[in-house]
Structures
1.
Amino acid sequence: MREIKVNELKEGMTTAVDVFSPKGQLILKRHQAVSAFDIAKFGFYNIASVYVEGSSAQEKEEWNKKYAIIKEKYRDSIDNLHEYMNDILYRNIIPDKNTLIRDSVEIFDRFETSYELFDALQVLKQTDVSTMAHSMNVSIIARLIGVWAGLDTEKLDEISMAGLLHDIGKFKIPDEILLKPGKLTKEEFEVIKKHTVYGYEILNNFKILESTKRAALLHHEKFDGSGYPFGYTADKIDDISAIITIADVYDAMTSKRCYRDGMCPFDVIEDFEYDGISKYHPKYIGMFLKKIASSYIGSTVLLTNGKKAKIIFVTEKYSRPTVTLLEDNSVLVLKDEKDIKIAAVL
């Protein structure tokens, strides 16, 4: 199975999952040959892409080759970012924007779909939980949010740079606190919170974009005033900082830590749904949740009842999509199921 953009569909391709309109109307059932009329309908209903059947063995081989290239590039990029950080922190030199973001943008551009992006990052982050890897992930995810929001290339590059440098202040936090395997004490957490101010102070020594400095300072602020370091509310938080905040929280929660495993993406989506509108920029958080949940359409998942299923449709409750059970192809609407949800993406 593979995701194909509607403008790249060809007659005769076979749908792998049911195709729904953005409002939930069934347009074409799975296992159906796509006609020219179907392609026109997809465009009329603003369907951006559909999943079609393909050679699973061939797809797996192609993805493994692509992933190997991305993995090597990712490792090199982390090494390069570490050198850039050393330049900034110890040599008082900061690379120009294009040099700094080059690796991040190149990795981003290698992904053909958002599913590929999240799938690869989910695997890569299990092998590297450093601040460097987190910063690279945030830069890539934040850029995707910017693309989804329709921002121009100049603004996307600003977002990429802000993501890479948002946590630079953590280098001034003692390792015994930053890398502590257990729960932080109240006093230790107060020290951790200072990384936002430290980051701003470090970057303020250089002639760089103000948005990069502000993202370092404000990426833990929340729209309802519950964040830090200042307890700012919506009117004082710029858009780029708001985007970095969402990407930062998503990557942190889905990443493995020494004291816990990474959370399932749909558990993170559920957490965002719980307080997203009050704590995060409403324009970006709503779009982010819908898009990221939709990225997993066609994916196989494990449910909390132990059964395997395939996601076929995203409802208005993004953390509880509609699935088909693999054992009998029956449809299960998870938003109507009180005790069943997605436990893991397989």
Note: The chain has a mean pLDDT of 91.
2.
Amino acid sequence: MSSLTDLASRVLGGVVVTCNDQFYAEASNLLLPHPARFDPDAYDAKGKVYDGWETRRRRTVGDDWVVVRLAAPGVVERVDVDTAWFKGNFPSAATVHGAWLEGFPGPNDVWQLPEHVWRPLSPRTPLTGDAVTSLPVVPEGAPELAGRRVSHVRLTIHPDGGVARLRVWGRPVPDPALLTGTVDLAATENGGRVLGSSNEFYGSADHLLAPGRAATMADGWENARRRDGGHDWVDLELAGAGRLRRVEVDTTCFVGNAPGRVVLRGADARAGDLGEPSSWPVLLDLLPQPDTRHVIALDEAARRRAVTHVRLEAHPDGGMSRLRLWGELDDDALAAAARRWEDTALPVG
């Protein structure tokens, strides 16, 4: 799953647009980044408090549903429906639909959509209590949406009940109109992604590419304390081939555990073997300060170098909250982004 992005992630900007019922627990809980929690003593005037989305017991024909606007448009490959802690009140089954909706429709707009706008992503699938059920998106079950980008998903639970978390795994497809000029070529929403890292003991390397500032250390990448004389690293694939202009190395919230030294290396997969150390010249060598946002213009030599990948090295170890790599995509990369946008468009009809 590490090669895929949770397109619905609240951290990235996913949001619940509307739902038909959230009597016991709000639907916005579905997108929270942390695992669902359970307090056996938590009750309110309506009953047991759950960390998730829970509807009332249905006494009429029908099903309950929630609509989520994805943080970034993308091709969905898998949907995880997590019923953690819902043991006697989980839905019997779930169905997932997707849609491409222009602009930013609000709750009233969504309620008025005709049913044919919603295309099947994952067929009706039985659920188990207190468990994660993975619903793959395959051409057989989603003939219209397999390989196509969507902007919104609708989770339908049959007939009612509670779901703790919803994860919509896929690959972002950024609008090429938003990739012109100087942009963050590492940002997840622009198509950047983490390919691998040496260690993520305390925090995921994916956090480095998230929008916004970190609120706590939990929002950043942090490795275990290193005792072997080496260093930790993260390998990134950029949104496309381009040239970097400036970088942002942010150690915010890492006060006593920031790296002693940060090195950024760049490589062009079109021109050399990424497995060869000589393919990774240094772009920046920095002695960072703790709890500091470092914004640095690269020197002329680094700005002239075309890169498709970047390696972040933390010497010897330590944590960082964000990494921004600002630059411009080259003409071929912009053309490739435009082709992918067109190729993944949902057929009209």
Note: The mean pLDDT is 95.
